[in-house]
Amino acid sequence: MAFERILVTGAGGQIGSEFVPFISEIFGRERIIPSDIKSNQANPRFISLDVTDKSSVDLAIDKYRIDTIFHLAAILSATGEKNPELAYRVNISGMYNILESAIKNKVGLVLTPSSIGVFGPDTPKENVPIETITRPVTMYGVSKLMAEQLGNYYHSRFGLNARGLRFPGLISYKTPPGGGTTDYSVEMIIEAVKGRNYKCFLKEDSKLPMMYMPDALDSLLRLAEAEDSRLKHRTDFNITSFSITPKQLELELRNYFPSFGVTYEPDFRQAIADSWPGSIDASAAKQEWDFHPNYGLKETAEDMILNLRKNIPSNIIKRS
Ligand code: NAD
Ligand code: SER
Predict the structure, then answer these.
(1) How confident is the model at residue 320, as a pLDDT?
(2) What are the phi and psi torsion angles at 221 (to 5°)?
């Protein structure tokens, strides 16, 4: 059984803050238990939950009779390089606690996003398949790879319905990204809308795969609802919408803001970007659960600008 009582961890983050309203519309608000280590006074249903605290995780899953978990709590790549120990605890121990408790409480589905961070400098650069060389050089990548493998292990050993997909960089305007290497894309669009120039922390030719948030939300739901019999993969589906360099985004934005300019001053995040592929192959997701992105670069920029022109949320600030 699934989708009767849904726990979302990391619900205050870039994805969770949009995923909770998205699934509340579909399944009903009363079925969703949003949780995060940080509180949310605006939503009385929000519970405080630290995924590294095993007994609290157990207690919450039991108390709310959870049958489905969207496990979004994580430390992203740039923050993870500043604090690898924290990334290890949240991304690996947190995942372990969720999986252990899911078995104990007979949870029907655990879906955990993974990332292009699982790839490393030895991975081919273009159209990378799911099964390839995965030797990440960041704690984020190491921990996300471990989380994928833990999910596979709990499926094969205990029959847990663990699923996951590797997101590319996500672009959105409601909640700031959580300290990742692809955050430049969101920052650049916001600065352009504000009428300011942007100092980019990646080189102008750093090509990375990207996706607009509506396609990310749709993908999480499609994978969650996919027929089990169709799945040949479980926790490591590659998904992507388009690949861009910072320069391509700058040029796209100049169509709307002709005087917009970017300077390129790479920092420690350049080494992370250099270790990731420029494009990945999402054909398994298309075949096994009908992954279907709708937004390319043009549509993403257009929609971001339209919405940011109406309102630039005050919390949209750099977190890394
Ligand atoms: P985010 O950083 O915006 O949000 C993560 C949330 O987890 C935050 O609200 C944070 O408070 C919470 N959190 C941190 N430590 C916690 C703990 N100990 N217990 C409970 N909550 C804790 O990240 P996001 O972008 O929303 O990412 C969600 C998932 O998607 C992660 O697994 C991430 O690796 C993956 N992902 C994101 C992107 C992206 O571009 N946003 C790309 C690839 C993969
Ligand atoms: N956007 C994420 C990051 O840069 C990719 O997982 O960390």
Answers:
(1) 44
(2) -70, -45
